[in-house]
Amino acid sequence: MPASLSFSVASPGGPRAARVVHERRGAGRPLVLLHGIGHHWQAWEPVLDILAADRDVIAVDLPGFGASDALPDGIPYDLEGVIPVLGALFEALGVTRPDVAGNSLGGLLALELGRVGLVRSVTALSPARFWTEAERRYAFGVLSMMRAGARALPPPAVAWLARRAAGRAALTGAIYARPARRSPDAVVAETRALREAVGFDATLAAGSSGLFTHDLPDVPVTIAWGTRDRLMPRRQGVRAKRVIPGARLVRLPGCGHVPMNDDPALVARVILDGSR
């Protein structure tokens, strides 16, 4: 069962309490999993038990998403605001320089954690901020439409759609290559998470400018991209490889933007191989 952890973080107004919900399974070297914008820790559910066979796996609801609280007042939803909070979370969890894997926004956060030396290795699945301006506008437009739809649809309508393969495709087809594989309950839960994500708007606004331009020569980096990523095309992975020449660039055949559900065995293997 997920656990709730409260810990102190620095803010412009002094120390404040943050509360983060996380799921922890397995034993071994710690591996932290970070989801994308509007999602929750359950995005990693398809790979959790595979990873937990070898590792102490901690899947996190990022602040302002899932069941975690919003960031305390005065802390922005940009890299400068979120990264120190994740560092404080690692300390509260009792993990020092864990391996980290992230998807989309979580992939960007994982790379930044690697840049500042807070993690041992990075696996980034379709990480943000390797786009062109046109690609960014397209991705943000799709995400904004998904958010608007999640907020407009009454819960009974979401549940009705989720019971049908075509409905699951309508709700989640932008991020999964195989949305019919998602269970109705999972689709209902992630639609609710998207609807209720208090950090969504501020996070999207914070990502409207700037690219990730830093090499990470001292941290093992794996960048993986689904061949059927409809939200952020895989050519962005080639750009990421140019920015981080030492990174291992992995192709995920048949996978969409959130690949953990499309091919759990492959994604788990990529994460484990990247954090040996």
TrEMBL record:
The keyword Hydrolase applies. GO terms for molecular function: hydrolase activity. Residues 31-269 form the AB hydrolase-1 domain. InterPro entries: AB_hydrolase_1, AB_hydrolase_fold. Pfam families: Abhydrolase_6. Gene3D superfamilies: alpha/beta hydrolase. Keywords: Hydrolase. SUPFAM superfamilies: alpha/beta-Hydrolases. The keyword Hydrolase applies. PANTHER family: ALPHA/BETA-HYDROLASES SUPERFAMILY PROTEIN, LIPASE-RELATED. This is Alpha/beta fold hydrolase. It comes from Streptomyces malaysiensis subsp. samsunensis.
